[in-house]
């Protein structure tokens, strides 16, 4: 009799353990889905920013030559600017191609973290090259305008908005860079905590 009671208690404990195990597995699946969903929206946001950069480069490629020639820029300046935009478009597409929403949804999360780290490093390198290159480009544009408009008042009227726009662009670029790196850090942290 006592053995039957012990067996029934043991069976009840096994049944409760099975139910508990099933609940834990369901909770883990839900947690994984929530994590992947959150990371998908972050990757989508990062891709949108990359696409916006490419659209900006296309605008410079289409409108830029006319605008720069109107400012008095030389043909070599316009060609170099167009080449810079083409290179920026290609590099943006290439470095962002590794981080995909589908990988976050269905793939190995450690590979996603590795790709997020790579993209973060690419952005650091990009900034180290982009800032000095932008300063040189802006100085070259100012020199082109000053050469085409020898009157100091005319030059100043044209150059002042260009320099102000360059400074605003630099500040916005830094903010954008910080936000993007923060989003990548968040993706990496979420994966490592899992």
Distance between the termini: 48 Å
Low-confidence stretches: none
- Estimated structural class: mainly alpha
Given the C-alpha coordinates, what overall shape results? rod-shaped
Task: Give the fraction of residues assigned to helices.
Answer: over 70%
Q: Mean pLDDT score, rounded? A: 84
Main β-sheet description: none
Task: Let me know the number of strands.
Answer: 0
- Beta strand %: under 5%
Q: How many H/I helices?
A: 5
Q: Please trace the helix and strand order, writing H or E for each element.
A: HHHHH
- As an assembly, this protein is single chain
Radius of gyration: 28 Å
Summarize this, please?
The protein is mainly alpha-helical and 194 residues long. The protein is built from 5 helices and no strands. Helix 4 packs antiparallel against helix 5.
Question: Strands, helices and their partners?
Answer:
Layout: H1 2-71, H2 75-96, H3 101-106, H4 109-148, H5 152-193
Give structural notes.
- There is one protein chain.
- The protein is mainly alpha-helical.
- Helix content is 93%, strand content 0%.
- It has five helices and no strands.
- The model has no long low-confidence stretch (mean pLDDT 84).
Annotation keywords:
single chain; 194 residues; mainly alpha; 93% helix
